[in-house]
Design brief:
The chain is built from 13 helices and 17 strands. It comes from Iamia majanohamensis.
Length: about 525
Amino acid sequence: MARGNVLYITVDQWRGDCLSAAGHPLVETPTLDALAARGVRFADHWANTAPCGPSRTTLHTGMYAQNHRSVLNGTPLDDRFTNVALEARRAGYVPTLFGYTDTSPDPRGLAADDPRLSTYEGVLPGFEVALNDPSETAGPLEWCRWLAGRGVDVPSDPWDLYRPDLSHPGAADHSEWWAPARFGPDDTETAFMVDRLLEWFSRREDDEPWFVHASFIRPHPPYRNPVGYHDRYRADDVPGFRGHRRREDEAASHPLAAAALDLPGVGAPVDERDRRQLRATYYGMMAEVDDQLGRLFAALDAQGLTDDTLVLLTSDHGDQMGDHWLIEKLGWWDESYHVPLLVIDPRPEADARRGAVVHAPTEHVDVLPTLCDWMGVEAPLQCDGRSLAPFVVGDPGPSGPEGWRTAVHWEWDFRNPWLHLAETAFSIPMEQCCLTVVRDGRWKYVQPAADPSVLPPLLFDLEADPDQVADLARDPGHDGVRADRAAELVRWRMRHDERTLTGHMVTPEGLVVHRDAHR
């Protein structure tokens, strides 16, 4: 039978360095810090792809993008793969979703006019939906109905709620990013979802273990805060930016960097005041989410609902937030892939590890095996990661259990079957519109699929160049390092080829099945 409750939380677009528990010089996150003190914080945790849909697919299937192949927002997820909701059902739960999973359905077997084929914001198969409020087209309508019930004047276009209130006192003296939104601090999308979660818990009448996936949209854009959070941090106080000092030098560093900087909504503001204010606004968005999560956990703790509950909190990906003159999530840049991971195991055997910080490299592919470990079911064979339980209920040492990875990997796919933007810009086919990264404690190597004359590889010495501005890939003195990193990348891909039936063999004695852990 299932071991206990599961509260699986994702926050959207939260950078891994933005925790006061991680030593951030400005951001304050008392709720997440308190969770870290109650459990284990994984300091070197990485998303395996971006943006939202592909990364959540990795979280929910335990698979690298090279295997699940749902590489874009809108790329269908193959029905043959299991996922976290289906595994929770196998363990005896009724997995319940609050928020979204950004899952595009397998179109095979669906009618051409099926409405699920007109939005990438579908629901992962297996979830019972308590709240799903997609916002891609009409906007977050459930939130708007809730606002209207609270007496808020909701405009016909819900996104107008995020238009800056330039009449607010002081707005004329600041960047436009400072001005508050047109709703109050108690009326946010985060507050709405916390209310719905608490209502659901208050209505529960049975004692069966529960599995809740709470998928919060913030601090995902729009970059705008309600009053009280709009000025939480001063633009003058934000730390400096990583990357080239001049935008034109960043653009000259690689053809993909130049292309990214030209994309609408991806290049950071050129004006220094705007760039700093945008980052301060992002920090304020985190403060709002942290406060609402504090309200959630205070209520759950008061009711004893976390006494037998595994809490796992992470983010789908990070945000460039001005670093390398970019915002949003993309490319090979660390800021888009380094994310928080907190795991709180309530059992007594985890007491010795409370407040521990893990520096061994961990990845999103480890999340599903970890949840399966807690639920008491074997992780699906498709999983490319390993359970993090040895770090939570034991101390495997700084390097992790035997055979633990020594580097992290991520993939970024920038094809577009609809608009063909990169394909046209670089005169390459879709299959060449992707790259893979291997990053260890010293070196970071980026391998695009396209010919190097079109999109060359990159190599960075992280010790000498933590801001990653000095590309060494074409330096003859680093030919050996580049070759070693490229060979390691090939080995990694070969070792993680899809393996559903490769451990099976039909023999004269019948079917033989063998399974090895990924190493």
